[in-house]
Specification:
Elements: H1 4-20, H2 25-52
């Protein structure tokens, strides 16, 4: 996943795949944990930028 839009799409697909039985709940849980790590990392970067008064772009949050 290159950016937050892809993360959202992947999370939605994982949920659909769990509901349809295409993947196991364990596989879906693994995917959701990865999404959480990516989200937490972006949040940490935002907080760090705020602390440093740094307004540089965070590519992951920029979208396409």
């Amino acid at each position: 996943m290159k950016n937050s839009n892809e993360m959202i799409n992947a999370a939605q697909k994982a949920l659909e795949d769990i509901q349809s039985g295409k993947i196991s709940k364990d596989e879906g849980l693994t995917m959701m944990k990865l999404v959480k790590v990516m989200n937490d990392t972006a949040r940490t970067k935002l907080q760090y930028n705020k602390y440093q008064s740094d307004h540089s772009k965070i590519e992951y949050l920029e979208g396409d």
